[in-house]
Design a protein that fits this description.
elongated, five-stranded antiparallel β-sheet, Immunoglobulin-like
Length: about 120
Amino acid sequence: MKIFTFLSADGFWAIEVARAGLYEFALKRWPNELDRPISEIIGLYDVEPDYEVLTVTDAGLKVADFDEMESVGPEAKEVKFKVRLKSGKTRAQAWFVNGLDDGKTFGAYYVYVKRLGVLGQC
């Protein structure tokens, strides 16, 4: 998949939370291996001349009853949300806002999730 050009696709993941607890969701544009800021352009410029510069100003996460936005700094590599989840089936949606350009949203290309602890003990 080509992710260098601004793709405004957005959707959700159907997920099943196996164990209730506190979870951390890390939203990223680039995979962990690249360790790059969300708004940075990378790649082979002579091969891909149609790059679009993104000025990501906000990130959002909606999962179960959780629905929040966070500001994104110009050098941010990820945006993290801590969410208390009950076990069961639900939906998760993660996105960025290209705020200084036109306010378009696009799905977070990479979302890393880890369980931090048990509800009530975190």
